[in-house]
Specification:
Length: about 450
């Protein structure tokens, strides 16, 4: 390993022993019937088996999850117990939108570094296929009264109101632009709409595409690159090192061992045929140059160096630092540009020291905008308060195994997937320092710097 900088090792270094994830699958496909708790359980059980870890040594389990289901409100605890972690071991759930799993790792980092704990499971899980469809308020009122009804005399009029609503009233509601009073709300769509600026995440990418002059062709070319790299690295077996196969319900006769998302044979011509989805008149963001809605889970075993050495483990990497930062919600895609300098400064590094980078591909336009902003002196001075640019984000070290446009983005799990993929690729390429970073819905960014273990 060719060192650009050297840092002394300490007993309280936080090391990544290993990690595993389930295959990632487009929502509505192979994993649609697997609950987020079962996705998390699968990844965690396989990680425990792979590392042959005595579960009694685990100090805590920290799991990222964005859309907590009603039957697993504290997802961390449910996943931990179902995977065989002892009842005495505490577990909890964290939520920072797209960076929830990165938040889980950062919690583990702080607890281990402080000396409070030595062995932590950190990760994330999400089944976006199973996000509920919500009943609108008017219908909720009727259902509430129906559940409280005492006998048929009270229930029948409510049933009549529920199923035989007066057509004149419904017509009036439509005329008054109040049709949503009787229409269900798709929660995943609502969740991807910013509550402060009132626009979908796709429209935030449209803003960046226009402001940074990113063409439709550039976006499609970036999306094509993601698919080609992901397909190639699926075929050459790289992803097998980080994927735990999962048996699919209800019969459990089929096992999924590869991601459902990367398209073999994807062409630029096919991408060019896709119509803009968010801004249909003047937009350039399509469903093909954006990440798909996705199901999946990822888990990581963190330890203090002292504990890892005592147990005989050879870690993948040590965590040097992390950083989070905020920005305008309507430009949330630039989050990596704001958070990366925070993490780099804490690590005592610059972009010139970084040998590999994983940026979550929420949208092709968003990543391309980040590349321009990273390399802009003006942006660094005016937006970040720096003396100049953050540093060049070179394409040849960026998402070298493909990214979320191909692999997908299960929002509660992606942060761990980024760090895990990065750590394993750094080991393959003999790279010392790596940066994992992502934008966060609501106008934030998260970043983590890791150093490979010799």
């Amino acid at each position: 390993m060719s060192d650009s900088k050297s840092f002394a090792k300490t007993n309280r270094d936080v090391v990544i022993v290993d990690g595993l994830r389930t295959p990632f699958a487009k929502a509505g496909t192979k994993l649609k019937r697997v609950s987020p708790q079962d996705l998390g359980k699968t990844a965690l059980k396989e990680l425990l088996a792979k590392t042959n870890l005595d579960v009694n040594l685990i100090d805590e389990v920290i799991i990222g999850n964005v859309g907590n289901p009603m039957d697993a409100v504290n997802m961390g605890r449910v996943v931990a117990l179902s995977a065989g972690v002892p009842q005495k071991t505490s577990a909890y759930t964290v939520h920072r939108n797209c960076a929830s799993a990165l938040e889980a790792i950062s919690h583990g980092f702080e607890k281990i570094r402080s000396g409070t704990m030595d062995v932590i499971i950190a990760g994330g899980t999400e089944n976006m296929s199973q996000k509920p469809t919500q009943v609108p308020e008017k219908m909720q009122d009727i259902f509430s009264k129906l559940f409280a009804a005492k006998g048929p005399a009270q229930a029948l009029p409510l049933l009549f109101e529920l199923f035989k609503a007066d057509m004149k009233q419904i017509k009036a509601l439509f005329t008054a632009n109040q049709k949503d009073a009787f229409f269900p709300v798709i929660s995943v769509v609502q969740g991807l709409t910013d509550p402060f600026v009132g626009i979908n995440m796709g429209m935030t990418a449209e803003i960046l595409a226009k402001e940074f002059g990113i063409s439709r062709q550039q976006q499609d070319e970036f999306a094509l690159r993601s698919h080609l790299l992901a397909v190639a690295n699926t075929k050459n077996g790289k992803f097998k090192e980080e994927i735990a196969p999962i048996s699919l319900p209800p019969e459990f006769t089929e096992t999924l061992s590869e991601d459902v998302g990367p398209r073999d044979g994807q062409t630029i011509e096919a991408l060019a045929k896709m119509k803009p989805f968010f801004d249909r008149k003047t937009g350039s963001i399509t469903v093909a140059n954006a990440c798909p809605i996705t199901d999946g889970a990822a888990m990581m075993l963190l330890m203090s160096r002292e504990k890892a050495e005592a147990l005989g483990y050879k870690p993948l990497a040590r965590i040097r630092s992390y950083g989070f930062a905020g920005l305008e919600p309507e430009r949330m895609g630039l989050g990596p540009v704001y958070s990366s300098p925070v993490a780099l400064k804490r690590a005592g590094l610059t972009m010139k020291d970084i040998g590999l980078v994983e940026v979550n591909e929420a949208f092709a336009a968003q990543v391309l905008a980040c590349q321009k902003a990273f390399d802009s002196d003006e942006f660094g001075r005016t937006k970040l308060g720096l003396s100049g640019k953050v540093g060049e984000l070179k394409t040849d070290i960026l998402n070298v195994n493909g990214g979320a446009i191909a692999l997908g983005h299960p929002v509660g799990a992606t942060g761990t997937r980024l760090v895990l993929t990065l750590a394993k690729e750094m080991k393959r390429r003999n790279v010392q320092f790596g940066l994992a970073t992502l934008c966060i819905g609501g106008g934030q960014g998260g970043a983590m710097v890791i150093e490979a273990e010799a």
